[in-house]
UniProtKB/TrEMBL annotation:
SMART domains linked to this entry: AAA
CDD domains: ABC_Mj1267_LivG_branched
Domain of life: Bacteria
InterPro entries: AAA+_ATPase, ABC_AA/LPS_Transport, ABC_transporter-like_ATP-bd, ABC_transporter-like_CS, BCA_ABC_TP_C, P-loop_NTPase
Organism: Verminephrobacter eiseniae (strain EF01-2)
Residue ranges that the Swiss-Prot or TrEMBL entry lists as coiled coil: none
Protein name listed in UniProt: ABC transporter related
C-alpha cells in the first residue's frame, strides 16, 4: 500500500545526523543518519554485525556516540541516559526480551506508565489519595494496553510464564505505556513461528495506523519489505542505501551485501 508521506519539517519525529561509533579498532558505525516522519514504519536492516543494534543503543542512551546529533520531535536531545531517553519519548524493546520475570503482565505494563506520572515516591510511601487515584488510572490504562496487544487474559500471570510470542507482545505494551514519540523494536519477530509473525505484523500495522511512529530492526526481510514505508540498509557500519522497500530491493549494493547472501 502506498502511503502519502508528508514533507513538512514538523512531521519529523527522529532526526539523526552523522552518527559514528568506534569500539577499539572496530568502526561499528560511520556517519549514519536517518530521518523518521510521523506515522512511518522505518526499517533498519543489514547483515549480522552491520551496526543495527549499535545504532539502537546510541539513540536510546545505552552507548554514547563519538559524533553526531540527535533531534526528537524538533528538539535536540542528548541520549546520555536510558531513563532520560524514555522521558524524551523513545521507548524500545530488546532483541533478548527484558521483562520483570516475577511481576505480572499487568505490573510490567504499569512500570512503563510510571515514568509519566506525578505523585512520585513520597505519594507512594504515604499512599495519598492522589497516589491511589493515579495507581487505579495506571492499572486501567495498563489493562487497556494488554487488550490492545491481544493478551488481556494474561494480565495476572507472571511474565516468565507467558509464551515467547506473548512476552514480545507484553514488551510492546510496556513500551506503548510510556506514550512514546517513537517506538523502537529490536527484532520483534525473532524466534516467532509463521502465525505469530502474521499477528505481529498486524499489530505493528495497527500501532502505526493509530498514529504512532516505529523504528524496526528485523532480520526477516519479507516482514520488513511488506511493512515498512522506508528502509535504511547498513553494511559494515556504513549506510549503503535508503528509500522505499521497492527502491532498496533493487539496489545493487544491497543485493550484493545482504539480500544476495541468501542467509536471511
Ligand atoms: N560493546 C561492544 N564492544 C565491542 N564491539 C561491539 C560492541 N557492540 C557491538 N560491537 C561490534 O560492533 C559491530 C556491530 O555490531 P551490532 O551488534 O551493532 O550489529 P548488528 O547489525 O546489530 O548485528 P546482528 O544482526 O548480528 O544483531 C560488530 O562487529 C560487533 O561485534
Amino acid at each position: 500500500m502506498e502511503r502519502n508521506i508528508p514533507d513538512s519539517a514538523s512531521d519529523v519525529v527522529l532526526k539523526v545526523v552523522g552518527v559514528s561509533k568506534r569500539f577499539g579498532g572496530l568502526q561499528a558505525l560511520s556517519d549514519v543518519g536517518i530521518t523518521i516522519r510521523r506515522s512511518q514504519i522505518y526499517g533498519l536492516i543489514g547483515p549480522n554485525g552491520a551496526g543495527k543494534t549499535t545504532f539502537f543503543n546510541l539513540i536510546t542512551g545505552l552507548y554514547s556516540a563519538d559524533s553526531g546529533s540527535f533531534e526528537l520531535a524538533g528538539k535536540a536531545y542528548e541520549p546520555s541516559a536510558v531513563h532520560e531517553v524514555a522521558k524524551a519519548g523513545i521507548a524500545r524493546t530488546f532483541q533478548n526480551i527484558r521483562l520483570f520475570a516475577e511481576m505480572t503482565a499487568l505490573e510490567n505494563v504499569m512500570v512503563g506508565r510510571h515514568i509519566r506520572t506525578r505523585s512520585g515516591l513520597i505519594g507512594a510511601v504515604l499512599r495519598t489519595r492522589s497516589f491511589k487515584d493515579e495507581e487505579a488510572a495506571i492499572a486501567r490504562r495498563a489493562q487497556e494496553l494488554l487488550d490492545y496487544v491481544g493478551i488481556a487474559r494474561l494480565a495476572d500471570y507472571k511474565a516468565r510464564t507467558l509464551s515467547y510470542g506473548d512476552q514480545r507482545r507484553l514488551e510492546i505494551a510496556r513500551a506503548l505505556a510510556t506514550d512514546p514519540q517513537l517506538i523502537a523494536l529490536d527484532e520483534p519477530a525473532a524466534g516467532m513461528n509463521a502465525t505469530e509473525k502474521l499477528q505481529l505484523r498486524e499489530l505493528i500495522d495497527r500501532i502505526r495506523n493509530d498514529n504512532r511512529t516505529i523504528l524496526l530492526i528485523e532480520h526477516d526481510v519479507k516482514l520488513v519489505m511488506g511493512l515498512c514505508d522506508c528502509v535504511t540498509v547498513l553494511d559494515y557500519g556504513k549506510q549503503i542505501a535508503a528509500g522505499t522497500p521497492a527502491t532498496v530491493q533493487k539496489d545493487e549494493q544491497v543485493i550484493a551485501a545482504y539480500l544476495g547472501t541468501g542467509g536471511h
